[in-house]
Amino acid sequence: LDTLEKWVTEIFSEIPNNGLPKPSFGHLTQPFDTPEFHKLYRVVPIRKVHSLSITWALPPQEQYYRVKPLHYISWLVGHEGKGSVLSFLRKKFWALALYGGNGETGFEQNSTYSIFSISVTLTDEGYKHFYEVAHVVFQYVKMLQKRGPDRRQVIWEEIQKIEANEFHYQEQTDPVDYVESLCENMQLFQKEDFLTGDQLLFEYKPEV
After folding, report:
1. Quick one: pLDDT band at residue 38, thresholds 50, 70, 90?
2. Architecture of domain 29-188
3. Average pLDDT, stretch 82-103?
4. By Cβ atoms counted within 10 A, which residue in 74, 100, 161, 199 is the most buried?
5. Averaged pLDDT score across all residues of the chain
6. Calpha distance 195→178 (Å, rounded)
7. Measured between alpha carbons, how far is 8 from 138 in angstroms, rounded to an integer?
8. d(CA 58, CA 32)
């Protein structure tokens, strides 16, 4: 640590501090209210694969990192057991896989918006029925919205335990990657959550 501190001091101490405040984009919470959204775009893929991606632009969710609402929703959407979207689509021979969530990168989650995406890998038959596939996905999301999270604290606690186990028993990462991750966390989380804020769930708040 002494050596690292010495290097940092030598390299960065002569960089002048301009005294300017950190830029804030908090007033731009609806940046995607444009006609280009709410549309269907067909893209010819490079690989031979059929994929349906549905994307929502939401208000910024960074402030809710202790609750992680998008992680909770992606857990429900990505569930593969009985009664799930994927289970239904597989019975129809329309889909092979389904993923929902937010990558938590700067592009998908920042101070102006958060993106939530659901991506379905379609079969050839599913590609012929992609409107019906999209309809099923929206039906499921509508059902989640209608029922609300009030009765699902057990699921949230289950996710919390799994994430805690993964955190406590994770393999040692490359030191450079770890330092980079911590530096990023220092810009996003409270001091006591620098080590854990990007992985653990702390609070259950159904209203969020």
Report:
1. confident
2. 2-Layer Sandwich (3.30)
3. 95
4. 100
5. 90
6. 10
7. 51
8. 9
DSSP, residue by residue, 52-68? EEEEEEES--GGGTTT-
- Which helix H or strand E contains 119, and what residues bound it? strand 114-122
Which 8-state DSSP code applies to residue 109?
B
Nearest to 196 by CA among 64, 62, 66: 66
Strand order in the sheet with 114-122: 50-58, 114-122, 95-101
Domain ranges of the chain: 29-188
pLDDT for position 110: 84
The DSSP call for residue 108 is: T
Q: Is the pTM of this model over 0.70?
A: yes
What is the distance between the terminal CA atoms of the chain, rounded to a whole angstrom? Answer: 40
Dist CA 162 CA 194 (whole Å): 20
pLDDT of residue 33: 65
